[in-house]
Amino acid sequence: MFKLPKNLFRPLRPVFRPTRLYSSVPLTAETYKDKVSINDKFKKLNDSDIEFFKGILKDESGLITGDDCLGYNEDWMRKYRGQSQLVLKPRTTEQVSMILKYCNANNLPVVPQGGNTGLVGGSNPIFDEIIISVANLNNIRSFDPVSGIFKCDAGVILETADNYLADNGYIFPLDLGAKGSCHVGGVVATNAGGLRLLRYGSLHGTVLGLEAVLPDGTIYNSMNSLRKDNTGFDLKQLFIGSEGSIGIITGVSILCPIRSSSVNVALLGVSSYEMVQKVFIESKKELGEILSAFEFMDLNSQKLVGQYLKLDHPLEDEYPFYVLIETSGSNKDHDDEKLETFLANQMEAELVNDGIIAQDESQLRNLWSWRESIPEASTMNGGVYKYDVSLPLDDLYSLVEASSERLRGEGLVDFEDGSKPVVEAIGYGHLGDGNLHLNVCVREYSKSVESVLEPFIYQWIQEHKGSISAEHGLGFQKKNYVGYTKNDIEIKLMKEIKHHYDPHGIMNPYKYITA
Ligand code: FAD
Ligand code: MLT
Ligand code: ZN
Fold it and tell me: What domain of life is recorded for the organism (predicted)?
């Protein structure tokens, strides 16, 4: 029982984006002209500004101009494209400070950028804002093997940080499919959740300190190594999830747990969403402290991944839902036995119809790839409208059904023959965190599809007491929809904070919050 055939190995793919000379992505300012217009109070970039930045950066590779800015202007989904003519890549926090001070004094708008893997159009400009990429701030600063406190520059790639920690027996307390490209600073600026939030908690808990540059050039430094510090306001929290709206994060101090020596992954076939919820309850009861991920996927998401990977699914028969369970512990025999007993119990109780457990590292990666490849598979037909939502567990999957029904009612969907604009609405996500990803996979982005989905989906979420952003943030995509989750007072307080730190509104303008 639960044996995975040995021939299923396929290595995980990095999040890859080829360099291109021209773009087929329409300009955000054109596609969304009903949503955004240029703010004339901002100054137009000129040659003397560029000379000033050259003087700060010294090294030519830190400054990119004209058409070479394309890869920084476009987002990962190829849904948004800005018109920036200047990317600055400082190498030190002091350089970031000098750049921001100058931009603030001269009313030059900027967009902070990390690995550019964000999924809400937050990391790209709309008009000609200057892109400040932290990619060259990429040093690991220190690691304490006793406390597990890791400090690095914001531009360190998440996977690089995790590999470094692995060499020291530790793990970065966040993992996600974009780990090969996204930055430590970028995930903090987004407050990304990822695949193991269930186990390691939110970055609001694990980040111990930050270094950040405010728009006026002030360097805020709380890069401490303390787990407990109750001296007044916890200011770093303002930057976690702020999406580049009040400053640029340049350094991160984070508490990392010991890497588990025994990791198991199982993939299960389940007959209904109700059963998925029951399996979740049982997994908490029976697997308890070793449970490190509980992800769910619907059948259509798995069909898409199958087409994308060009592989047969590891489970022979089709099921309406699939669950991926990961356990992480310190005693292989104990963990193996616990997981096998759990699966046997679930099958006996008929909560699970079929299941397999990875028998080695490559099979484990293979099973994860059926979950982690969904974002890439979702875009393969042309594009994807993404909705990343928190909902009470009971209602979680109903949003996929409601959206699918609405699209079908409008005659917009066909999975196979390519005659309709929508391929399918698929649902998957971090069920253990009450986080659904609804992806509407399309053959091309179109206003006719988008207007069927929005604001319908946001209204539905509000009616069911959910959040329109569980982990991806608001960025440009949700700028007009914050009120579906936050009340007027909350929005007013957020605007006051924005105005306090960024009175000229130069930080990531045109996005979810304005000064
Ligand atoms: P960017 O995309 O460059 O920026 C994101 C936002 O943060 C922007 O608003 C930008 O202005 C701001 N920003 C970036 N760096 C800084 C900085 N140093 N200082 C201030 N502001 C900054 N998200 C999840 O939560 N969970 C997942 O499981 C998950 N999986 C993903 C899988 C794939 C394949 C992809 C493509 C994305 C996934 N994401 C996931 C989205 C996620 O938001 C990003 O991967 C990550 O958080 C963004 O990091 P980044 O360095 O690419 O930031
Ligand atoms: C995920 O969980 O895979 C991510 O949040 C990214 C996505 O949904 O595209
Ligand atoms: Zn996610």
Answer: Eukaryota
Given a cut of 90, whether residue 136 has pLDDT beyond it is yes
Half-sphere exposure of 356 (CA within 13 A, CB side): 18
Banded model confidence at residue 21, pLDDT cuts 50, 70, 90: low
Measured in Å, residue 439 CA sits from the centre of ligand 3 at 11
Please count the other Cβ atoms lying within 10 Å of the Cβ belonging to residue 317.
8
Domains in the chain, start-ordered, CATH in brackets?
Answer: 140-255 (3.30.465.10), 262-305+316-369 (3.30.70.2190), 378-484 (3.30.70.2740)
Which percentage of the chain shows pLDDT scores above 70?
Answer: 96
HSE, side-chain direction, 13 A CA sphere, residue 228: 0
For residues 331-359, give the mean pLDDT. 96
Identify whether the C-beta of residue 333 lies closer than 8 Å to the C-beta of residue 309.
Answer: no
* In the predicted structure, residue 225 carries a pLDDT above the cut 70: yes
Provide the β-strand partners of residue 228: none
Determine the atom of ligand 2 nearest the C-alpha atom of 371.
3
- Among all ligands shown, which has an atom nearest to the Cα of 119? 1
State the pLDDT confidence band at 22, using cuts at 50, 70 and 90. Answer: confident
Tell me the two tokens of residue 332. 């292989």
Beta bridge partners, 328, equal 263
- C-alpha torsion 498→499→505→510, nearest 10: 50
Query: From ligand 1's centre to the CA of 21, what distance in Å?
Result: 24
- Residue 138 CA to ligand 2 center (angstroms) comes to 25
375 CB within 6 A, ligand 1: yes
Share of the chain above pLDDT 90, in %: 93
> Which H helix or E strand runs over 268?
strand 262-270
Helices 332-348 & 273-287, crossing angle to 10 degrees? 140
pLDDT band of 20, cuts 50, 70, 90:
low
**310 CB-contact burial (10 Å; exposed 0-12 / middle 13-18 / buried 19+):** exposed
Q: Sign of the CA dihedral 133, 137, 142, 145? A: positive
Q: Rounded to an integer, what distance in angstroms lies between the CA atom of residue 51 and that of residue 63?
A: 11
